[in-house]
Amino acid sequence: EVQLLESGGGLVEPGGGSLRLSCAASGFTFSSYSMSWVRQAPGKGLEWVSLINESGGNRFYADSVKGRFTISRDNSKNTLYLQMNSLRAEDTAIYYCAKMLLTGPLDYWGQGTLVTVSS
Amino acid sequence: DIVMTQSPDSLAVSLGERATITCKSSQSVLYSSNNKNYLAWYQQKPGQPPKLLIYWASTRESGVPDRFSGSGSGTDFTLTISSLQAEDVAVYYCQQYYSTLHTFGQGTKLEIK
Q: Which of A60, A105, A109 sits opposite B101 (nearest CB)?
């Protein structure tokens, strides 16, 4: 059974705060699949954040987070990461990690971890 | 970036009736080399993560009831629920994965009339 378990969310102050999210994967060959992060602000729609290919050699970011967030993975630990720096109030959201099927659709999602950026 | 626009923003349909949601992309998501539309549909119920329903615009994910169908090509797409059931109350999203930035539509809230 595929499982994705996010962790690392919490409360951080705006204007310089950082957080590192993790997503522990199991039930599939992690190193064979691209992975994504998607976020959802409270009461709002889905926003695609970032993706990383199987090897970690290709990474892409939404314009809203480019230069502040870094996606990475450790295939030996079956874990996906999202390093978030220079956090802003508008980064407040539930952050989901998701497994990519083929070249893009997201076929498995975690339950999400809440990031709150507030003073 | 490719902008995805869904309509309507909300929709109320009677049980057993057809529900139709449309999604329009700001540029074509049809890849000519394989003739595939890089378009997916998701369902999200309150308090849950999204669930993949359809990809390649019309391929149902395993386990998805056949009352859900997707159609369209290029820039215009449709998600149809042929006979609405109570458990279909949710927010539905389209997503393009043609470009390297995989953008979502704003979502359509589906309710029972």
A: A60
pLDDT in tens, chain B (113 residues): 999 999 999 999 999 999 999 999 999 999 999 999 999 999 999 999 999 999 999 999 999 999 999 999 999 999 999 999 999 999 999 999 999 999 999 999 999 99
User: Who contacts B48 (Cβ-Cβ below 8 Å, separation ≥6)?
Assistant: none
CA A48, CA A38: separation in Å to the nearest integer?
A: 4
CA distance A112 to chain B (A): 7
Kindly state the tokens that stand for A60. 């892409």
Taking CB atoms and an 8 Å limit, are A51 and B91 in contact across chains? Answer: no
Round to whole Å and give the CA distance between A1 and B100.
28
Tell me how close the Cα of B28 comes to any Cα of chain A, in angstroms.
16
φ, ψ for residue B87 (rounded to 5)? -75, -5
| Yes or no, beta carbons of B101 and A45 under 8 Å apart | no
Residue of A nearest to B53 (CA): A107
Strands A59-61 and A3-7: unpaired
